[in-house]
Write a structure and sequence with these properties.
With 181 residues, this protein is of the alpha+beta class. The chain has one domain. Helix content is 29%, strand content 14%. It has a four-stranded antiparallel β-sheet with strand order 1-2-3-4. The longest helix is centred in the first third of the chain and has 14 residues. The protein is globular.
Length: 181
Amino acid sequence: MVRTTSAHRAGSSLNGRCPQPGRSTCRAPGRTFLARLLWGRGLYSVLYEHLDDLEDRVVREGEFMSNILLGWNFGDGHLNDERLVAAVQARLGLEPGDLVMVYCESQATPWRHGRPQEYRVIDAALGTVERGTWDVRDCVATQPWLPDGPIPLQVTWTAPGFRRRHTLTGTSGTAGQEQPA
């Protein structure tokens, strides 16, 4: 028999294993695991470039979000794209910056073929606001906690009129223009 847990019970799965005040710390291993992965270093780099208040935000990995919102996931992120964010937006009517998702498609050993890994930044209120790439070799060359700051990103497209507000690194994208990859 297969049993699914509904979204309202996700926090209760920690009952008896983690006291209420420490539940978000108990969930931290998921974020730590993401940072250990090569694409996790890229994802955190994009977040650092987009959100000056990242340290004050609740960061959740895509599979966790899919579990909460849908009750299950494929384990590969294919449920966590613009369609899911649009469905959340339709119900909640969020403001720009309230829900920001960075999506990347996993690729098998892209550094062996010189292909960059692509990402998209999706703001629930604005839709896809940026596309770009990172070189996976840069992810390999750094530690999970990004001791030298975010890895270099190549912005390939920015939504017309969109401009990064403030970032932890002080950089901003060029609004509405194609940029060389």
